[in-house]
Automatic annotation (TrEMBL):
SUPFAM superfamilies named in the record: Cytochrome P450
Protein name as catalogued: Cytochrome P450 86B1-like
Gene that encodes it: LOC104609660
Stated family: Belongs to the cytochrome P450 family.
Keyword annotations from UniProtKB, A to Z: Iron, Metal-binding, Oxidoreductase
Length: 318
């Protein structure tokens, strides 16, 4: 495939080489196959329930107590840092099923998060710098490339540990619906390499983007009190006793002493009614998109609206 060779010549995939053969770097048939796997995993009822339960537990047990503690002490906080810790906790918990204790009042450091952040920084620099510059930095092992190399080694070691633990748990009959477990159960012969590549891709793709979006969302809500009032009004209605009764009529059991905990599928059903909140978050994404640019390779010649001609092998950056 000459187009694929041209894109490799342009160094598109090489800039993200830490992601290996994961979904982000896959192309053509491999991309289609992996996308189907990811879509099947994320759309399954088991995973969506698991995701809702995990997120609710982290919010109740970690995020809210942390914010309350900071408020009582009258401390200023770095909202982006708190949201990064929150999304990191939820991402690692849903992908690997691990609690790394990163969201706590002590604000501890974490080597796995450092892997993600250093990898993201280096990949951004690879797009900003001429290819020969960052390749020279890689050869000399200096700057962001030095941190990138260390992040790669640490990421490999931690991923191998998580994958080994999950395989062992599944052999022992432990029921889990993490992304990693679903991948292993859906494909018995899936290699550790492919698991590592995809799980690391999901961590990098889901952590910083979500943290940035949440930070901007809460900042915008604080700047627009009328929006906050409407969101609270909608939340009050959707989670009201009337809505609980409506769901019970539909056959959804919600015990008063349990609230929504342990009923992730029910929580997601209720949240589908948060129309205004959804619109507010979409507006946040429009104003402050978390993904600053995206690349697309050209497969056949075409003419852009401004008259520019793009040919096979060209790379478009949006």
């Amino acid at each position: 495939m000459p187009q694929l060779r041209s894109l490799k010549f342009l160094g598109v995939f090489e800039k993200f080489d830490i992601l290996g053969d994961g979904l982000f770097n896959a192309d053509f048939d491999k991309w289609s196959t992996q996308r189907k796997m990811a879509h099947s995993s994320f759309r399954s009822a088991q995973f969506r329930t698991f995701l809702a339960d995990v997120t609710r537990k982290i919010v109740d047990d970690k995020l809210i107590p942390l914010l309350v503690d900071l408020a009582r002490k009258g401390c200023c906080l770095d909202l982006k840092d708190v949201m990064s810790r929150f999304t990191f906790e939820t991402t690692v918990a849903t992908v690997y099923g691990r609690d790394l204790g990163y969201l706590s009042p002590e604000f501890p450091t974490n080597e796995f998060l450092q892997v993600v952040e250093n990898a993201e920084e280096a990949m951004l620099y690879r797009f900003a710098l001429p290819t020969f510059v960052w390749k020279l930095m890689r050869w000399l092992k200096v700057g962001t490339e030095k941190k990138y190399s260390k992040a790669w080694a640490t990421g490999d070691a931690l991923s191998a540990e998580f994958i080994s633990q999950t395989r062992e748990e599944l052999l022992q009959g432990v029921e889990t619906n993490t992304t990693l477990a679903i991948y292993i159960k859906s494909q018995k012969d899936v290699s550790d390499k492919l698991l590592r590549d995809n799980m690391l891709t999901f961590n990098i793709a889901g952590q910083s983007t979500t943290a940035a979006s949440l930070s901007w969302f809460f900042w915008l809500v604080c700047k627009n009190p009328h929006v906050e009032a409407k969101i609270l009004e909608e939340l009050g209605f959707v989670f009201s006793e009337k809505m609980n009764k409506l769901l019970q009529v539909k056959g959804i059991l919600m015990r008063e002493n349990e609230g929504y905990g342990g009923h992730g599928w029910c929580l997601m059903k209720v949240m589908s009614g948060l129309v205004y909140l959804h619109a507010a978050f979409c507006e946040t994404l429009r104003l402050y998109p978390p993904v600053k640019f995206n690349t697309r390779g050209v497969l056949k010649e075409d003419v852009l609206p401004d008259g520019s001609v793009v040919r096979p092998g060209n790379l478009g950056c949006m």
